[in-house]
TrEMBL record:
This is Serine protease K12H4.7. InterPro entries: AB_hydrolase_fold (IPR029058), Peptidase_S28 (IPR008758), Ser_carbopepase_S28_SKS (IPR042269). Belongs to the peptidase S28 family. PANTHER family: PROTEASE S28 PRO-X CARBOXYPEPTIDASE-RELATED, RE36938P-RELATED. GO terms for molecular function: dipeptidyl-peptidase activity; serine-type exopeptidase activity. Residues 1-16 form the signal peptide. Keywords: Glycoprotein, Hydrolase, Protease, Signal.
């Protein structure tokens, strides 16, 4: 069978790295594209083209005729008429050519003589148009458009792939448009909208203990406990000096631990560095400082006010922090709170802190009740952990805290031991664990089945 592979990235905003706001820099590091696989020998010779299609701004309002141009990239080196379309849906990161010229999707496209593309949407001026249903309508329109405009695709089958939030999207696309895609691969997909996401820190703690050992876990837990004790006993000046915090530092509303926590979503070697410190607090401070402080920007603003300012800044479209947080307020929650004692990161991150930020950065309409209701409505519409979709292959890294919001039931999802967030997109390699190799082989076989059903 001949194929065309299309890698569509519908929610990727260009993320610059020169912001003086460490909230933006940290957010960009956490929400960047999963590391693109190395180019294959054939992929190095690929010619990647940039194209656009016209999208409706509002798919709900038939009387709204406003449109925008959606950019996408294409690689036609394998294309032969009549085959299916592979679509990689990008998430909250800057899209690149990486998935067009290497990795497991590229290999599957090569097997079927495919044609590869990712797409990027533009930011909108009005956040009311920014929700996942609109994005899924965009994806559906994209499929319809390429089938009409590219000769040989009129009757092509469709395979979707996504990682992280875009894995959520490819799953929910199957629910909204059940007869459009033949199958989907969802890597690290959170499906359950939940405001008070206590499991994130719990799984992160478990992963630290598993990969870094009890000593690392205990050092972090003890360091955070000591810092909280210092906050509660008027020793803010010491904390400010340790972490090079700005004078606006408020011990009642600080976000400094998040820098350490976020690293563990994809990087678990930090324990070596943390354990090198002379004591618990210095070990943690040394690690955090290297990832937050830069002489270029001066002191580190870890205050609640600084966060709200970063979320509320509408002047810089190069960042999607404001857009993403709006969606969490309006649809998902997913606030990585400290509401559980089964984690080492202390107690300074109640869900209300994030809920208040929704109100202060966007609108007073985002009350506690509203945000919880929004998450509940999302689960009603998309089914939560029971999305009732067919032909979707779910994979999760065992170490990934996001898997707690995903489908993990044996027989319905594959959990890959000792792997983190979205780490299974590379080509099959001798360095793969047996579980990783088996998972990649399984999705390749499922694709063959889906394309021949």
């Amino acid at each position: 069978m001949k194929t065309i592979a299309v890698l569509a990235a519908l929610l990727a905003i260009v993320l610059a790295d020169g912001s003086s706001s460490h909230f933006r820099r940290t957010f960009n590091n956490l929400h960047k594209e999963p590391p693109p696989p190395p180019p294959s020998i054939l992929g190095r010779a690929a010619k990647v083209e940039v194209k656009t299609i016209t999208q409706k701004l509002d798919h709900y309002d038939k009387d709204n005729t406003k449109t925008w141009q959606m950019r996408y990239l294409s690689n036609d080196m394998h294309f032969q008429s009549g085959g299916p379309i592979f679509i990689f849906v990008g998430g909250e990161w800057e899209v690149s050519n990486g998935y067009l010229i290497g990795g497991h999707m590229f290999d599957m496209a090569k097997e079927h003589n495919g044609y590869i593309q990712p797409t990027e949407n533009l930011s909108t001026e009005n956040l009311k148009y920014l929700d996942v249903k609109q994005a899924l309508y965009d994806l559906n329109h994209f499929i319809e458009t390429v089938k009409k405009e590219i000769p040989g695709l009129e009757k092509s089958k469709v395979i979707l792939t996504g990682g992280s939030y875009s894995a959520t999207m490819v799953t929910w696309f199957q629910r909204m448009f059940p007869n459009v895609a033949a199958g989907s691969w969802a890597s690290s997909a959170p499906l359950l909208a939940k405001v008070n996401f206590i499991e994130y820190k719990e799984v992160t703690g478990q992963s630290i203990k598993q990969m870094g050992g009890e000593a690392c876990y205990n050092r972090i837990e003890n360091a955070v406990a000591e810092l909280e004790h210092m906050m509660d006993n008027n020793r803010s000046a010491e904390i400010k000096a340790l972490f090079k915090l700005c004078n606006t530092f408020n011990p009642d509303k600080t976000w400094m631990y998040t820098h350490f926590l976020e690293q563990f979503q994809t990087y678990l070697r930090a324990c070596e560095e943390v354990l090198r410190g002379e004591n618990d607090v210095e070990g943690l401070a040394s690690y955090v400082l290297k990832r937050t402080y830069s002489p270029k920007y001066g002191c580190v603003d870890s205050t609640y006010v600084g966060l709200v300012e970063a979320m509320g800044d509408t002047s810089n479209s190069d960042y999607m922090m404001r857009q993403w947080f709006y969606q969490t307020c309006n649809e998902y929650g997913w606030y990585q709170s400290s509401g559980s004692k089964l984690q080492p990161f202390g107690s300074k991150f109640p869900a209300d802190l994030y809920i208040n930020a929704c109100r202060d950065a966007y609108s007073e309409a985002f009350t506690n009740k509203t945000i919880y209701n929004n998450a509940e409505e999302t689960n009603k519409y998309f089914g939560g952990l029971d999305p009732d979709t067919s032909n979707v292959y779910f994979t999760h890294g065992q170490l990934d805290p996001w898997r707690a919001m995903g489908l993990q039931e044996e027989g319905k999802a594959t959990i890959i031991p000792e792997h983190a967030h979205c780490t299974d997109f590379a080509s099959i390699s001798p360095s793969d664990s047996k579980e990783m190799k088996a998972s990649k082989e399984k999705i390749a076989e499922l694709v063959r089945i889906w394309l021949n059903e």
